[in-house]
Amino acid sequence: MATAVQNEPVLIAGRWQASHGTETFQALNPTTLEPLPPQYPVSTWEDCEAALAAAVDAAARLRQLPAARIAQFLDTYADLIDANMAEIAELAHQETALPIEPRLAKVEGPRTSNQLRQAAAAAREGTWAMPTIDTKLNIRSCYEPIGPVIVFGPNNFPLAFGSVSGGDFAAAIAAGNPVIGKANTSHPGTTRKLAELARQAASQTGLPEATVQLIYRTSHADGERLVSDRRTGAVGYTGSRKAGLVLKAAADKVGKPIYLELSSVNPVVMLPGALRERGEKLVDEFMTSVLMGTGQFCTNPGLVLALSGQETETFIDSVRQRMSANEPGVLLSPSVQQSLVAAVDTLVRAGAELLCGGQARQGRCAVENTLLRTSAEAFLRQPEVFQTEAFGNASLVVVADTIDQLADVLRHLEGNLTGCICSAEDGSDDPHYPALASILTQRVGRLLNDKMPTGVAVSPAMNHGGPFPATGHPGFTAVGIPASIHRFAKLTCYDGVRQGRLPWLLQDKNPTGSTWRYIDGKWTTADVDG
Q1: Euclidean distance between CA atoms 247 and 253, whole angstroms
Q2: Is pLDDT of 131 > 60?
Q3: Does residue 238 contact residue 153 with C-beta atoms inside 8 Å?
Q4: Is residue 521 a part of any domain in this protein?
Q5: Which CATH number does the domain housing residue 198 bear?
Q6: Per the residue annotation, which of 95, 209, 261, 285 is the catalytic one?
């Protein structure tokens, strides 16, 4: 007798409850292509309506709580994630095929709890809100919560970018907003476990029950309606360009801020002196970067630019041989596999030479390690097509005849998260560096020199953003606290408002004694002079 498959509840207003939706889906084990047992509902608008109504109430109540309480929640949640990491990593491994160790348990897990703790520290201290005081005119301003935030999580980082655990979530909560998480359908079980821990942390610290809510999937129409609803404060989205732009159009139509991470090929410039000086070392570094996580990093080096010459030919041939010899890793889902094969086909039809790989493997979600090549001349004839993102274990090498032609390729790049220039340590590439870097910095959010792009440090100085289509706005970052918090806040000015009616950050007395405030043109931690 067949065992009935469990239908999982959604988390709305602090309760796990049956969804109004009747359609369901299941996650898939990418290694075996077998469906995983629980069924998850496709929420209807009734679920979204209930979540929004509860979030509005939670937002009003959160505004009345001290920042220290919100910080306590983030710290408690981080502790719970650490304490349950073995179970979380096992769930994520089953749903994504990402390795438990070191990737999930030793790298992404600690990064996730560290982000939450950094957000807690920022919320508690308050400088992120940029409190500004003009004593002569008695005008004061600071950043405040924007309202309910919808977070769409990606498939490739189930913890560190997850809809109820990742950077967008941490930033939105630190600003004082409730979050409605929309799980990525590749790892719903992992997201549910994290939501359970977040609910537990909210209960322990006395936050409103609807501070964290979770739905798994909606129709496209309901997703657009959700991001454009009058009650939504802002949206954070990480995922495909196509789906992200549909949501952006819906949000833009009604003036709702939406912060998108969409697409990036992350160009790496290999200058000739660097290849002469340490060619094999650069091959090692590039191979590690391009195949890390089966290439499923948003900063994966999908485009290599080099000058024609023997050093470049040696580099290309070494990469080709090693890609061919390496067994391809498992991709996150069949859709990622299909998209990668389609992108490679697009590049080949545009004229790129397929040096190795490009074919899907049978029996699991995998595509052979793929290297393509084209000339700068061909690239410049179809720059948009040759920047098709091949998300996964693939990269395209563009070979230029001259440094001026290479610079022209850089000028035709779309916006990217990162750009890298590998240069010789002996100074032989120095004459080329300033001009190339000047062009590249206008096309990327983060410029790297002599290091591959796949590491994104959780640092206050980090910019994980960039010009379109890397993101929807070049002025914001998804990683790096306190800057990432500003996406989910609104600037409010208080003109002539009495002391007792001002927010705690804007009153004459510094509320913490350590919050930096901009008072009469100077940053200070002092109280306002009597």
Answers
A1: 10
A2: yes
A3: yes
A4: no
A5: 3.40.605.10
A6: 261
Residue 2 has pLDDT above 80, yes or no: no
Contact of 167 with 116, CB cutoff 8 Å:
no
pLDDT of residue 79: 98
The amino acid occupying position 346 is T
**pTM of structure:** 0.95
Flag whether pLDDT at 4 surpasses 60. Answer: no
What pLDDT, on the 0 to 100 scale, is given for residue 488?
Answer: 98
Active-site residue, 224 included: no
| Active-site annotation holds for 298 | yes
Q: Is the pLDDT of residue 1 over 60?
A: no
**Are the C-beta atoms of residues 74 and 117 closer than 8 Å to each other?**
yes
Candidates 375, 414, 368, 411; CA nearest to 393 is 368
Average pLDDT of span 251-268: 97
CB 13 within 8 A of CB 213: yes
Range of the domain at 49: 10-15+33-126+142-262+478-483
pLDDT in tens, 392-405: 999 999 999 999 99
Identify the sign of the CA torsion 326, 329, 334, 335.
Answer: negative
Is 213 in the same domain as 275?
A: no
pLDDT band at 3 (very low <50, low <70, confident <90, very high): very low
Strands (E), 122-228: 132-134, 139-145, 149-152, 179-182, 212-215, 217-218
Mean per-residue pLDDT over the chain, rounded: 96
Residue 333 lies in a domain: yes
- Side chain identity at residue 369, one-letter code: N
Examine residue 504 and state whether it is found in any structural domain, yes or no.
Answer: no
**418 and 380 in one domain?**
yes
**Domain shared by 250 and 398, yes or no:** no
Name residue 24's amino acid.
Answer: T
- Which position among 108, 142, 285, 298 bears the catalytic label? 298
Q: Which helix (H) or strand (E) holds 174?
A: helix 167-174
